[in-house]
Specification:
eight-stranded mixed beta sheet; alpha/beta; about 600 residues; 26 helices; 8 strands; about 55% helix
Length: about 600
């Protein structure tokens, strides 16, 4: 979501790094570009003004003028102020001392409250809680049924005593059917009065005696039709009241049910509207007063732009929420809502929904989000995902095989690939690595389905073939290709690259170099990330260079080494291979392995 903002800021800082000493004019020019980038990203004007003022005050002070590297110090200041805008420190849920902990969800219709309820229940169940989902949205068509599906996926219980709105009609408030019945009754009364007037004008006998007067006949028919409509409207209003139920009573009954059944968490899904109105706010306020929740989470669509501020302020005044949840954070909108809501409302952003899967849910860390925006990666989140996906004992065994360079087979690689898939999309993982913003084209070109193709090829082999790929001759390769639905060329490329990977592991075991990361194998490329190929004639021979003493140049060398190792485009635009993809095989040089330094935290955890 923050790609556009990240690109703008990266370009601004790139120009800043070329200057050894910063003048006031340089700082003003940088702040001007940052202001434009934030406004283009739909950040609220008031927030931008406060942010720029804070950065300017610190940038013109002794903090920058006395720094050894002024440009890096300005970048650090921008990062610190971004963290402040996003809420400072992360806040956890307020867990009640005496269960159950009650969490109420509020927000506009379509913001993703029901989906978020299932994701939150799934995450809390993984922490050892026993969540209960309460279906208090009784007006949106099939909202109760959707919550039941989400509860089944999350593995949590659902309290839904009423089916809600299954008719397809979506009244803006529960008084809609009653209002329709009242209007129909008034229409019937007027029709009866018109009939009496027609009889009086005709000078006929009372209306219960038959009359052949056309005016009286027409008036009688109109009165009968109006009376029938009034009866139907009254019946519909009664049926609606019985079928829909009372969301306040449902919420209270849900909390009592959780107490009786010993559920530790209650998540109440409330109704929303397509826009802010008094009826919605009153219903949400009544539910809050009835159940007294420990936390009220305001779910907001991160793609709604500048309207996020006014919507958040309206809900803050009406419901007084305690935390914010950003949904649809994986969208392609500019994302200004995330940079505005926390600062404007004074309420922290607690969670973020980053995809459609029930596992695409994470705790919101302001410092990590600021790091992503500044293209510095998010290694801590990557480590946490790895901790959940990898088995520690299995990782240790794989680490021993990789570091020794012996015994690592295709079966081992398949096992590691399957564990990597548990972490989610490979694109998302690569995007969390520092400096990957400069490899955006290669990451976008990455096809996650390549992992599935590799898995199909390996699964089409016999156990003996996985342990000893040298057994695979021409006929076996043809059989594997037919079984996996691929081509013999794809099988040959996989085997060639695996042989190259084993060779690289043996070299690493003898001479050190790049640390091993089980589950994210140090292979000469990634599937589906073949390089752009040659751009002209013959490639000039590479000259070995030592590590630069200049921090900026050294960082560039490390990014280029990462690009060559992953098979993506490098600064020189030379060819790059893919370890298990479709590009030409190319092993990273020893110089690449020396320049490529993975973060110690990740290497220590996984290797």
């Amino acid at each position: 979501m923050f790609n556009s903002l990240s690109d703008r800021l990266s370009a601004t800082f790139k120009n800043l790094r070329t200057r050894g000493k910063l003048s006031e004019a340089d700082i003003d020019e940088t702040l001007r570009e940052i202001r434009r980038a934030l406004l283009d990203a739909d950040v609220a004007v008031a927030v931008v003004r406060e942010f720029i003022a804070a950065v300017r005050e610190r940038a013109l002070g002794a903090e920058v003028s006395q720094a050894i590297n002024p440009a890096q110090q300005v970048i650090k200041i921008v990062g610190d102020e971004l963290v402040e805008i996003l809420g400072g420190q992360p806040r956890n849920l307020a867990i009640a001392k005496n269960p159950p902990t009650v969490i109420m969800l509020a927000g506009l219709q379509g913001a993703g409250k029901t989906t978020l309820a299932g994701k939150l229940a799934h995450a809390l169940k993984g922490q050892g809680h026993t969540p209960l989902l309460v279906a208090a949205d009784l007006q949106r068509p099939n909202a109760v049924q959707q919550l039941q599906v989400m509860g089944e996926r999350a593995g949590g219980a659902v309290f839904a005593p009423h089916p809600g709105n299954t008719s397809g009609a979506d009244y803006e408030d529960t008084s809609g059917p009653a209002s329709a019945a009242e209007a129909a009754a008034n229409e019937a009364l007027k029709a009866g009065q018109a009939l009496n007037a027609a009889i009086a004008a005709a000078g006929k006998r009372p209306f219960w005696q038959r009359s052949e007067d056309p005016a009286v006949t027409a008036a009688r028919q109109a009165a009968e039709a109006a009376q029938a409509r009034a009866y139907d409207a009254a019946a519909q209003a009664a049926n609606w009241a019985v079928a829909a139920g009372n969301p306040i009573e449902v919420s209270e009954q849900g909390v009592q049910y959780a107490l009786d059944k010993h559920h530790s968490i209650v998540i109440v899904d409330t109704a929303g509207r397509t826009g802010v109105d008094a009826a919605m706010m009153q219903q949400a306020a009544d539910i809050r007063a009835a159940i007294n929740p420990d936390d009220v989470l305001f779910v907001i669509d991160a793609m709604i732009g500048q309207d996020a501020v006014s919507t958040a302020q309206a809900f803050l005044a009406g419901v007084d929420f305690t935390g914010v949840v950003l949904s649809k954070l994986d969208g392609d909108a500019r994302g200004g809502a995330a940079l505005s809501v926390a600062k404007i409302t004074g309420r922290p952003i607690m969670f973020a929904s980053t995809g459609e899967k029930i596992t695409d849910f994470e705790v919101f860390h302001p410092d990590r989000m600021a790091s992503r925006i500044l293209d510095m990666g998010d290694i801590l989140t990557l480590i946490e995902q790895a901790e959940q996906a990898f088995d520690a004992d299995e990782a240790a065994k794989m680490a021993a095989k990789v570091t020794s360079g012996e015994g690592f087979t295709l079966a081992d690689f398949l096992s590691q690939m399957q564990q990597v898939k548990k972490m989610g999309s490979m694109k998302k993982m690569l995007a969390m690595m520092p400096g990957m913003g400069q490899m955006k084209d290669a990451i976008d070109a990455f096809d996650d389905r390549e992992v599935d193709r590799i898995e199909a090829i390996i699964n089409s082999m016999t156990p003996a073939e996985r342990d000893n790929p040298k057994l695979i001759n021409g006929s076996r390769r043809a059989r594997i290709a037919r079984g996996s639905g691929t081509t013999t060329t794809a099988v040959n490329q996989l085997l060639d690259r695996f042989a190259g990977a084993q060779k690289m592991m043996r070299q690493m075991s003898r001479g050190g170099g790049m640390p091993s990361v089980p589950g994210m194998p140090n292979l000469p490329g990634m599937p589906g990330m073949a390089g752009p190929g040659k751009r002209g004639g013959k490639q000039a021979p590479k000259q070995k260079k030592g590590k630069s003493g200049n921090p900026a140049k050294r960082a560039q060398q490390e990014r280029e080494a990462m690009a060559r190792a992953l098979g993506g485009p490098t600064a020189g635009g030379g060819p790059a291979g893919s370890a298990f993809g479709l590009g030409a095989a190319q092993e990273p040089s020893e110089e690449d392995l020396k320049n490529l330094q993975l973060p110690k935290g990740l290497a220590g955890l996984l290797g």
